[in-house]
Automatic annotation (TrEMBL):
Pathway: Purine metabolism; AMP biosynthesis via salvage pathway; AMP from adenine: step 1/1. It catalyses: AMP + diphosphate = 5-phospho-alpha-D-ribose 1-diphosphate + adenine. Keywords: Cytoplasm, Glycosyltransferase, Purine salvage, Transferase. This is Adenine phosphoribosyltransferase. Pfam families: Pribosyltran (PF00156).
Amino acid sequence: MDKNDKLQILKNAIKAYPNFPEPGVTFRDIFGVFQNITALRAMKDLIVEHILFLEVDLIVGLDSRGFLFGPMICMELGKPFLPIRKKGKLPGKVVQQKYVLEYGEATFELQSDLITNGTRVLIVDDLLATGGSMSAAVQLLKSVAADVVECLVIIELTSLKGRDKIEVPLHSFLKYDD
């Protein structure tokens, strides 16, 4: 099966919910992939084919759907996983980064003692929309002297221009304009 076949299988498994969570918004639900083993394998293959030659030391997953992909990538690359979580969810020494949401403000935290100067990081999440959370993750990692090699998402909502806020390379497998 070639890359285009895998992308089509993946795209077919993404469920769309018009007017959710509010009128005019189409919610793209990644969980349809996890209910379809063929789509899950296609997604895993696409991710592995893309990341296999990236030189990274650490995989960082964003709260919470990045936690679904991060460990899968870690096993393929033989690299450790570190979560970035919402405020108050991590023990130990943490650093924080505030960011703006469509409806307010939030804070990400990272256990900073697990990263050394120059650690090469791949950030993963399911979806890039406005770019606020991904941008905050990049800033948070830079604040502890990590080198963010790439941000990787399954879905990108291009009309929201989140990519414009990301200062490092970004790769998305599926792009939607709505």
